[in-house]
Amino acid sequence: NPIELSSNVVLQAILSKDLENSIARLQLTSTSGEQFSLSGLDFAADYTDKVLACRIFSSGMPFSVYFGFHTEFKQFELAINSTKFDPFSVIDVKDKNSIINKAKGSNLSGSYKITYGLESKDLTFFANGSLHVSNNLFKGGIDASYNIFGNLEKISVNKLICTSPMFDVDFKGSFDVKQLSPEGEMFINKFVLPSGKNLSAEIYVDKLSEGFICFIPQLIAGDDFLTALQLICVPHNKSLDFNFEAYDYSHYEVENPGKVSAAGSLLFEDKLFLQTSVSLENTFISGILQYASNFVKNPEGLVNLSQGFLSPYIMTLDLYAST
Questions:
Q1: Running DSSP on this structure, what letter comes out for residue 168?
Q2: Which residues of 197-221 are buried (b: 16+ CB within 10 A; e: fewer)?
Q3: Exposure of 170 by Cβ count < 10 A (0-12 exposed, 13-18 middle, 19+ buried)?
Q4: Residue 292 — φ and ψ, nearest 5°?
Q5: Does the reported pTM lie above 0.90?
Q6: Using an 8 Å Cβ cutoff, are 107 and 89 in contact?
Q7: What is the pLDDT of residues 38-90, one digit of tens each?
Q8: Alpha carbon 36 to chain centroid, angstroms
Q9: Contact between 232 and 225 (Cβ < 8 Å)
Q10: What is the DSSP letter of 295?
C-alpha cells in the first residue's frame, strides 16, 4: 500500500556556474502520515574551497549534524553535536507499543566525529559525551559517560562509566583491533545479582605477546569471595584458547587453599563449539555451593546444603567436557 505524507517544503538556493560558493537551504515543516509524524527540520548545503558541506539542524532542538566531503582529498567527515538531545523526539509513532515510543526520554550529549579517506582507507573517530537510556527500555534507566577515540588499529578509552540501579562499572584502557587484545583497568563497583546481593571486583587487563591476561585480586559476591582469579585468552581467527584459575581461602583451618582451574578452546564455526578440562583441588563442596548461592534467585536450598552434611567434604577431581 502506498504511504501518504503531508508536509510543507521551502527551498532556497543560489548556484554559481562552477558551483563554487553555491548555497542551498531546505526547510521541512512537520510531516505527518497515517502511522507517524516527523518534526520540522532544516537542511543546509554549500560548496566552498572544494568542500561539499551539508548540515541538519532544528531551531527547537539541541543538536546539529554536519556531513562534509573534500573533493580533492576524497575524505568524508561526519560530526554530531548535541546537548541532552532525545533523538526519538523527532518522530512520533502512533503505535504506543513501538520501540521508538518506549525509547523516548533517552538523550544524547557531547561531540562525535568520524573521518574516512576513500583513497587512504584511513578511518578515525572520537566520542566525548554522555548517554541516558530511558527507564522504559531498561528498568531504572542507564547513564553512561565516555571519552573514546581511535582508528582501525587501536581504540583508546580515556573514560567509560556506566551506572544504573543494577550496576556501577567504569573502565579505562585500550583495545588492539588487529590482535583483538584489550588492556586497562575495570572497576565493578556494584552489580546486583539474582539473589539481591552485590558483586564487586577490580579487573586488571594486560597484553601478552599473544593474547591478553585478566587478573582479579578478589571477586566478591555478597559476603563470599574468590581470590587471585586469572584468565589468559589467546584469540585466533576462528577460535579462542583460554586458561583460568581461582583460589578459595575461606577455610583457614586447612593448609592449602582450594583451587579451581579450567583450560580449553572456543571454536567459532557454523555453531559455537566448546572443549575444556576443569580441575578442582582441595576444594570444599560447601564453599562452592555457598558462593554459587549468590547467583541464584532463591539461594536458600544451596545455603542449606552448604551448611548441612556436605560442609566437611573436600573435593579433588578432573573433568573433561565438550559440546
A1: E
A2: bbbbbebebeeeeebbbbebeebbb
A3: middle
A4: -65, -25
A5: no
A6: no
A7: 777 889 999 998 999 999 988 778 999 999 999 999 999 999 999 999 888 77
A8: 30
A9: no
A10: G
